[in-house]
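Researcher: Hi, I'm a grad student and pretty new to this. My advisor asked me to get structures for two proteins we've been looking at. I'm not sure of the right format, so I'll just paste the first sequence and hope you can take it from there.
Model: That works fine. Here's the first sequence with its structure tokens right after it:
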Amino acid sequence: MKIFETKTAPNPRRVRMFMAEKGLLDKAGFVQIDLAKGENLTAEYVARNPMKKVPVMELDDGTCIAETMAICRYFEEAYPDTTPLLGKTPVDKALVEQWLRWIEFYFFLPTGMSFQHTTGYFKDRMNPIKEWGEECAVASEKFFHFLDKHLAGREFICGDEFTAADINAFTTVDFNKVIDIRIKPEQQHLQAWYDRIKQRPSAKA
């Protein structure tokens, strides 16, 4: 199988960390897509993912799976003997899903919108609205505070074990650097959690 990605982008990083935690990085070949040059807009790429985003996975039979968590779900189900990252019990699975949605909607999305609307990176293919980007940055900063408070006395975000929630939050914290938002000195719980996750080999995948 092949995974078409942009290695510096946050969504592909989420997939690579997920695969690395499961020891599955060798199961796919990674093909780099240059977003700045618009390689994701070509007819060949759009045929794989009409949403024109990265990453997208192409299985050996030609089936294409787009969206980060859909790809992660594939690996969770296809390799059941690997470390579970989406929960074990019904309750665990529901709570991980809850956190994934919170992180996606209230953290990753505003971070991405702030990046797109304040940096001009995609100004050749969209209409950036600076004020909207700035408002999204405020929402992202609020989630830093929310996470810091939540992580007091906790090693991981959801439950007692490392999950995809930690992966998605960690990569989003890092992605915030592109809009100059970082962990504040007083956010000690968030910083301690971040430092623990950064030490995991998957963080360098």
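Researcher: Oh nice, that was easy. Here's the second one.
Model: And its structure:
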Amino acid sequence: MFKSFLSLLLCLLVSAVYAQSPKPFTPQQLKQDLQVLKDSLEVVHPALYRYFKKPVIDAAFRDTERRLNKPMDAAQFYTLVAPLATMAGDIHTSIELPDDYHSWVAANKKLFPFDVRIIGQDVFIASNNSDDSTISVGSKIIKINDQPVAKLLHKLGSTFSGEGANQTLKIRRVEQRFAFQYYFVYGDCKKFKIEYVDGDARHLKTVAPQPYSVFNARRANTRKTCPLLKPLFPQPPYLSLSLEKEKSTAVLTVKWLQNDVLASSGEAFKPFIDSAFAAINKEGIQHLIIDIRNNDGGESANASYLYSYLSDKPFRFLYAMEATRTTYEADISTGIRYTKGITVDTATNVGTFFGLNTQSLPGNRFAGAVYVLTDGLTVSAAAQFVTLVKLNKRGVLIGEELPGALNGGSGRGYAYFYLPNTNLLSMISRYRLYMTEPSKPHRDDCVQPDYIPMKTIAELLMGVDKDLQTAHDLIQKAL
């Protein structure tokens, strides 16, 4: 069974090409895709029942199957099955609508005409892309089409995977994709009735949806009035260093850890990090702020390399990796050595399993005080770096809870495939990572910051960086 099933996955991975069409799929096709998803999770995922027991997940799949009783298009199916993948509590196990579906929506549909920023559970207008210019940027949205914002955020975020019970990543993904996600979840809307607060006044207005082609033109008006409003996605250069010699402070910004993304903007991680710490140590800097917010991750080796400059002794990046029996048998057939059942041998030297050996240190490590800025978009390898800082008490964390399990999450050696009918892109982790000793019991919490600065929409619109400001305040107190 496993061999034939994995062969099916390979064929789907190699041959699937998504051609967008708004045509609906039959209940039979949808149920077939649902079964492929369930089988895939059970065969591939190393810790599927980590947060929800098997009977709970099985019941969720049965309930979804009962709801597949009529034709649905890809987006309608997505809103039903993506939440099932999120039950693994693993940011690397998820379902996405293909890029060309997004492109089709952008070219053919009219969308919610506002960009937003989210603070806690409050949603604010960050760009007015509607025809009604009287609606002020900075207004707080209370309801959309009679739906309270809190319920909206829960619904819109339900398709995004997080780490365990973490919600900050889901909120940030909704923030980044609000107009599109609203369409995927609620479908076409001929109008949007919005209830909002502007200053002390409460308003109720109806606005028309807008084609995505008008968004950028109207966003330009926001950039004129709010030029320091930070973009929602990282922009190059992704690596930078600024020195404040008079304050003996440096700010090291790391927006990506993925080598091919960095190469696309002419950047290289390790040479940059080497030169940055050479400059930091040459100037005798005593306080280092590492801004790793809005970092989608990348190579674990880069996360380890960055931390190596902060450590005073050789360290363990990973203690073990765990896999399902199917992955284990496939690995054994290729010569990979395991011990203790399905835990990877910590002495193995296989490149795919980076981090199981003791990590060495560079010659010019930084011995001063460290402050790390985090947010809900500090994910994957970026979260691993912050986890090392937290576990080893090597710095002060400032910002939001980040979606990384403190003792190790799932995420390496991913299985990618398209569901056979709807062509939804699916990703499933093949290994669970342990960043602490597996034999010792630990709470399965995500990484918490030491300081969570309070923020306002006015500050965001003006470009005030409360996280960075807090770091500088702490440094000032230490001087």
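Researcher: Is there anything I should tell my advisor about the second?
Model: You could mention this: The first strand starts at residue 94 and ends at 96.
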